[in-house]
Amino acid sequence: MSDLRDLYQEVIIDHSRRPRNFGPLPGHNHHAEGFNPLCGDKLTLYLKVVDGIIEEVRFEGAGCAISTASASLMSEALKGKNEAQAEELFARFHALLTEADEKQAANQAESLGKLQVLAGVRDFPARIKCATLAWHTLHAALHDQAAPVSTE
Amino acid sequence: MNALTERPEAVPATFDVMRLRDDFPILERRVHGKPLVYLDNAATSQKPRCVIEREARYYAETNANIHRGIHFLSQEATEAYEAARDSVRRFINAGRREEIVFVRGTTEAINLVAASYGQRIKPGDEILITVMEHHSNIVPWQLLCERSGAILRVASIDDAGELDMASFEQQLGPHTRLVAMTHVSNALGTINPVRKMIDLAHSHGAVVLVDGAQAAPHLEVDVQSLDCDFYAFSGHKLYGPTGVGVLYGKAALLDSMPPWQGGGDMIRQVTFARSTWNDLPYKFEAGTPNIAGGIGLGTAIGYLENIGLDAIAAHERALLRQATARAAAVPGLRLIGTARDKAGILSFVIDDVHAHDVGTILDSEGVAVRTGHHCAMPVMERFGVPATVRASFALYSTPGEVDALFAALAKVREVFG
Ligand SMILES: Cc1ncc(COP(=O)(O)O)c(C=O)c1O
Fold it and tell me: Computed from CA positions of residues B182, B187, B189, B192, in that sequence, does the dihedral angle turn out positive or negative?
């Protein structure tokens, strides 16, 4: 196992303690619920999308440090992106955590900005679902899926 | 009933945990470069060498289908499998071997009763469970209620995680047909006063199923003195193989119940007009069972009987006392489940650190615990937590491992500040 410090980086601890964009979003026009039944993480994501651009992102819920920090970092990264860019970011983030080829995964890192701090999760397979929960929920919100997203 | 004083206190001098550990090959493993500290025994226990070897020997020397062959191996396999049934009967002090039905595990045992006994449940009948049940002792009854129009009632628990006896009594009534409760809670460690609960249920004419998944490995169980109608447990939590478990049922009840799965072995005669059923317990054992697993379970039971359940219980209680005292000294740690009568389960949360993060940090120190809702979401809801960390002890757990658990917990503060 790689060092715990690679997983629980300062930025992650900080975002889990003080999540950004946390709380309800009055006037949102998309939302979805995400649920990780294995550990009981719950997340509601709100989006305000205007002319195809994500103007506001907020979330609520209770989860572990990884899922909370991931949602918080995601909320920062999404602002100003259009839907296609958001989905593309998800694809790259997913590859960062799950791509078997280390080099390819590392290639993603550069383009991910601050989201890179979650790269350490790839060495903790049991925690990958925690890090991707917010993103799966984003996908559901953009597609207005009524059923809650489940990581199982 | 004062269960506390009934239980033997001292660990007998003959109980030598370090010697017993040698029986469990897996305990030599290192994980993440640290010695394995396996404290997830409530999920499944490790297997002694004798069980592992017995299963292997069955496949190497005896493998054949049972109950149907005239040849030598088939008879040898049948004898070994049926000897395991005798071991189970003795282990829980059932009156007759026909009362021991081999199933896949506790979950299947409960589903069997819900499917078969459930056929006599009518609209308006009531089934009573408790808040502290494992999902496997909730969902089969919910399904039965949906099918039958019966009503599911739930007895509450208090802040210590003990059953609220007043609530239990209050919910028993003229319509109660079946009461199902856990003997020991897997999420809280609470040992329920099942004897008293069974008597109360019987006084209302209800039949009683006891979920013994967490009790059978840790307490002496006597189904005749409990007078329960059904008792269910799993082999894999009892130092035995996965995929095999036991449903005990009183013979008269089992006899009066319809089969639940049809197939080979459970029939006496099959014609297209009508089939007739085999005797107990085979009526409930359709198809080729987990023969190696059943035989291995018999071996596990023999192993436990040699050590003595009382000695094991006293040993685990000493570990629980040690761990509970240590937990009190950890800042921000809150125990979930503080019943007076508890089995070796320590469930807890830590202020502002999610159980899942605690689990990962403990794992990096080689300490295996369970984190999550423990298939008992209503318990989590009752205590207002999304998840807990659960350390659970077994006969091979040591005071040194309790120390290792708390040393690893100190790491949580290092990481989270
Ligand atoms: C109290 C209780 N009941 C039932 C079960 C289900 O057992 P199994 O999964 O072996 O069927 C468990 C196991 O987790 C349990 O702890």
Answer: negative
Task: Judge whether residue B335 has pLDDT over 80.
Answer: yes
Residues of A in contact with B387 (CB under 8 A): 39-40
* Residue B202 Cα to chain centre, angstroms: 23
List, for residues A35-89, the tens digit of each pLDDT value.
987 777 889 999 999 999 999 999 999 899 999 999 999 999 999 999 999 999 9
Task: Find chain B residues with C-beta within 8 A of A124's C-beta.
Answer: 360
B163 beta partners? B157
B381 touches chain A (CB under 8 A): no
Q: Compute the distance between CA of residue B104 and CA of residue B109 in angstroms, rounded to an integer.
A: 7
User: What domains does chain A contain, in order, with CATH numbers?
Assistant: 4-147 (3.90.1010.10)
Distance of alpha carbon A37 from alpha carbon B372, whole angstroms: 9
Q: What is the pLDDT of residues A98-137, one digit of tens each?
A: 988 887 777 777 788 899 999 999 999 889 999 999 999 9
Q: Complex ipTM, two decimals?
A: 0.89
- In chain B, what are the domains? 3-44+309-412 (3.90.1150.10), 51-305 (3.40.640.10)
Task: Give the number of the atom of ligand 1 that is nearest the alpha carbon of residue B182.
Answer: 1
pTM of this structure: 0.94
Radius of gyration of chain A (CA): 14
Spatial distance between the Cα atoms of A99 and B272, rounded to a whole number of angstroms = 57
